[in-house]
Fold:
Amino acid sequence: MYARGEMHRLTKELDEEANAREKAELDVTQRKEEQRNAEDQEMRDRIQVLEAQMKELNAQRATVARNGASQHSKGQLAETAQGERATHSDMGGPKSPMS
Structure:
């Protein structure tokens, strides 16, 4: 009778230890998964910020390119106008009907 009770007690202790160990392993696994999820979310947030910054920079780059092209074309028009005036003055200017 004593041996049977002792065996039952030891079996119960072993089961409790196994359950405690299993629970601890699950807790560790769950904490690791939660940490990975948090890191993944942080990375997604950082990616969103970087994508927003890229869009802003691309918009600025496009604006600068448009302004630069506009300035360049204005410069070309001015050069063309100056060239035409120089050509007219070289030829004595436009002939007036009065001369």
